[in-house]
Amino acid sequence: xxxxxxxxxxxxxxxxxxxxxxxxxxxxxxxxxxxxxxxxxxxxxxxxxxxxxxxxxxxxxxxxxxxxxxxxxxxxxxxxxxxxxxxxxxxxxxxxxxxxxxxxxxxxxxxxxxxxxxxxxxxxxxxxxxxxxxxxxxxxxxxxxxxxxx
Length: 150
Hints:
By secondary structure, this protein is α/β, with parallel strands linked by helices.
């Protein structure tokens, strides 16, 4: 075997081992999860069978209702990604495409986008329309979703 081919093969093997180990031992923050209507019913609230709001999750969540062509939605996306990394142990972040998940959009009366649903573990959720600055979203997360009773 020629030396160049040998080293290429060794390099590929080392990279493969490194990739496998980094995947197995990685401790990365959670990303925003793209949610379907079925996942909403399974993870958040079964609006088909429940009359009163009963959140199924064990930590607060944020659901960004968006579409792919919406300018403000595109500006909100990196903010939500960053916050999902910052609050990965405390808050779950979801995105729901209102054009794909029309039933879910109808249930929540989504008529303008972006709209963001903030869901505390206990109590009623809060829906806000429009694009808010990152600082305002952080304040909502801290004061509404994560605030503990003294």
